[in-house]
Amino acid sequence: MKIERCLWATKNPLDAKYHDQEWGVPLHDDRLLFEFLILEGAQAGLSWSTVLAKRENYRKAFANFDVVKVSTFDDKKCEALLLDVGLIRNRLKIFGTVKNAKAFIAVQKEFGSFDRFIWSFVDPSGRQTPIQNKWKSMGDVPPQTEMSDAMCKDLKKRGFTFVGSTICYAFMQATGMVNDHVLDCPRHLELQHMVRK
Predict the structure, then answer these.
(1) How far, rounded to the nearest angstrom, does the alpha carbon of residue 94 sit from its chain's CA centroid?
(2) To the nearest whole percent, how much of the chain has pLDDT over 70?
(3) What are 128-177's pLDDT values in tens digits?
(4) Sign of torsion, CA 186 188 192 193?
(5) CA dist., res. 138 & res. 154, Å (int)
(6) Catalytic residue chosen out of the listed positions 23, 35, 40, 169
(7) What does the alpha-carbon distance between residue 139 and residue 102 come to, in Å, rounded to a whole number?
(8) Distance between CA atoms of 155 and 172, rounded to whole angstroms?
(9) pTM above 0.85, yes or no
(10) Catalytic residue among 18, 23, 58, 169
(11) Is 40 one of the annotated active-site residues of the chain?
(12) Is 110 a catalytic residue?
């Protein structure tokens, strides 16, 4: 009997909706890429379900992930955000979001878009073709790869924080750079067709 979705997304309706509509869908919008970069960093040490439950609060607190606005947040604003119970109240993560916004803007200026820069790690040709993995179970999925190692190293060199290799690989999965839905999951085949022409 075929499964309905990957095992990790069967715990609650929010996980299931995210799995069915977003996880692994190729993203090329810089605002959304910034959102996922911040949310994946916020997840460090926590479950993705925790982050999903707080996602709307993050959007409100961080100006809908408008990178220019977030880059202007000062210490006073960050201190106020640390009091927001709707967020993961970790000082390094909150202040790191502003640091990452500034680094993100620098990448946009250098490459024309963050999208162009970040997708070069999986497809240097510029076609932005996702990697189609063929995992039989979620246990086969690696926590990081050589590509996420390279992404991590480059992002850290550019001043980003909370971008370890495991976080980078989770970012790659979330933004559709890799298709890590297991073979039995219907989304695996659906996402194979969501490639830019």
Answers:
(1) 16
(2) 96
(3) 999 999 999 999 999 999 999 999 999 999 999 999 999 999 999 999 99
(4) positive
(5) 27
(6) 40
(7) 36
(8) 13
(9) yes
(10) 18
(11) yes
(12) no
